[in-house]
Amino acid sequence: MPETTGPRNTSPSGSALPDGISPVTLWTAAAHAAECDQTTPYVHDPLAAAFLDAAGFHGGPPGEGLLQRLLPDWAVVRTRFFDEYLHAATREGCHQVVLLGAGLDARAFRLDWPAGVHLFEIEHPAVLDFKARVLGDRRPSCGRRTPVGADPAGPWGGELVAAGFDPRKPTAWLAETLLYHLPPESVESIVGTMTELSAPGSTFAAECVNADATSSSFVAPFLDALASTGLGWRWQLAEPERWWAEHGWEAQVADLFTLPYVIQRLSPYLPVLTAGAAKCVFLTTGTLRDGPGD
Length: 294
What we know:
By secondary structure, this protein is of the alpha/beta class. The chain has helices at residues 23-35, 47-55, 66-91, 107-110, 125-135, 157-162, 184-196, 220-227, 240-246, 260-266, 275-278, and strands spanning 96-100, 118-123, 144-149, 171-175, 203-210, 236-237, 249-253, 281-288.
């Protein structure tokens, strides 16, 4: 659940959240913690409850619309999708993994990684310090985990390389929800750095917002409520494959309703989800293009 950090916010009780911790990442942690109570959880994240307790946070997204009610289940589905992406990428040779805007992501500890994976987490130092206090002396399940203290929306390339990242090796990049909370110029910079540092065989995954859906009756009330927290969906796409191709990547958008776990988890909402509402975001993956003409 890598999440972008946002403005300083408060918990439902009114107390300040720890420095740099966005409510978005805590909403996802809450969804993960609840998922642990399922008989067969789609995501097993035993650290989620510890992060919530340390932050003094127990709540959810603002507002009471259908999208808000669906979001915890969506967060679990999204995490499962990106877990499977990382499993596939690392087993196919991407032994470097970079989580952009790592937030409270616990994948370094909860996934079953192949041998030799080096996972980098790019996040604000204050968030990484908070995370380190909760993690204590827990050992990661990947070969090596390296926190990189840098603004994920800023020029972090030098810090990543200095931390041991090798641009000559294929990399699996993940920006789970970082990008769409940022202005377009920041996204351009992030993707440009990611592309520059990627060796042949590199892959990426990101959740992208569908620009054609944000004014719908399903999405707009949530965006109004979200704005009250100082957050928003600032970067939006209508044609994700085209946008990523223009930035050096061969991309594809997942057809979510071909995935059995999506159908199972979201089945209670299907009778009231229009086709447009079901496609308000794109779960996008892709591979580095071999050259500008390919």
